[in-house]
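Cross-posting from the modeling subforum.

Setting up a comparison between two proteins and wanted a second pair of eyes on the formatting. Protein 1 (sequence, then structure tokens):
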Amino acid sequence: MKADDLREAYLAFFESKGCVRRPSDVLVPRWDPSVLFTPAGMNQFKDHFLGKCKLEFTRATTCQKCLRTGDIDNVGRTARHHTFFEMLGNFSFGDYFKREAILWAWEFLTSHNWLGIAPEKLSVTVYEDDHEAYTIWSDEVGL
């Protein structure tokens, strides 16, 4: 699968779950003096998270162009280090929560309508104190 196809599948999947597709925000957010570059997909929603504005939607999906420089000295030395990437994201603004996020992630990865990855080829990790997520993964997904 090509990167363009994966990106489009991800965005289309979350649109099918009622998310509004938002375009990538600018890479240099002049409106945000706390960052030089956009470091994450949530950056365009920062004012909402801070209570400065209210959005017209409660669900969103994005492919955000991001630039991070924290490990810039390693760029070119390893295949893993880079500065620019596109971050796929789905956001709930008080609308859906952990259960839906987990079940939808699993559906996107394993459903033959989407990526169709064999479940036995996948594994998940759960934060040790997150008993709710563990229960969802074990009891509902069956891992």
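Protein 2 (same layout):
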Amino acid sequence: MSNFGAETPNHNAPGDVSYSDAETVDPGKLWQIEAASGPFVGLAVHAGHEMRCDLRSVLKIDDRTRLREEDPYTEKIAALCGTHILTFRSRFEVDLNRNANEAICVQPEDCWNLRVWKENDGLTQTMYRRSLVEHAAFYEMLGPLLRGIEKREGRFLVLDCHSYNHRRAGPDQPPADPERNPEINVGTGSMDRAHWAPLVDRFMGSLQEADYLGRHLDVRENVNFRGRHLARFVHTHFPRSGCCLAIEIKKIFMDEWTGALNEAAFEALLAAFRATLNRIEAVPWTR
């Protein structure tokens, strides 16, 4: 076992979870790794919708509501990176972008005041613990994978891809204030921003210049999201060699209430990210 699991201590679990327990997980049921050369790594840890059968039997939340709080289609943005990891499981099974103490939504206040589990015969300690083991296993996988890319490339960029809702008041209600909700929010809250300034500035500048359906995208930094556990993990273990950009895309490319994709809008978004990755690979990343 590596020591990467130490980044996700679990003080509140019902019973201790040892990181050796991560070895009991079947990775093929949780994620798929597509490895390639190059310094880019894509993840979309909230794109999955699957849940274990034991958890499905105690869910109170319906599938449509659950899908609305997940990040469908973001795995296609992550797949623009040479190396990318496709995660299958819903954030309601285990949220890989939270630390272990917060990774399972137990109470409504843990997740947008949604009641996820049945009040009687709901989430058990055994179910909770099993989800935490999946969390530990993910980071025990991710750390060595990134270490290998670091050794091969000398540096790497992780795109931590997410999307967010901006019509929470209802499908027929006005959207959230655009001044506080950029179309693309780039979270850099846990990195040494000065060290990575050339990369971050070039990345954001390229996205801002991209043609998106005849106009430019509103791309800003740390407005409503600064990045969470995944970004902190990268910047803790790889502070000088690994840059993680927490990308939050407003759901302008889909109907967040039905899940329907606007294919033209999404293709334009993919083109903007593809062009940006092409532009940054050969330029200096750090000062």
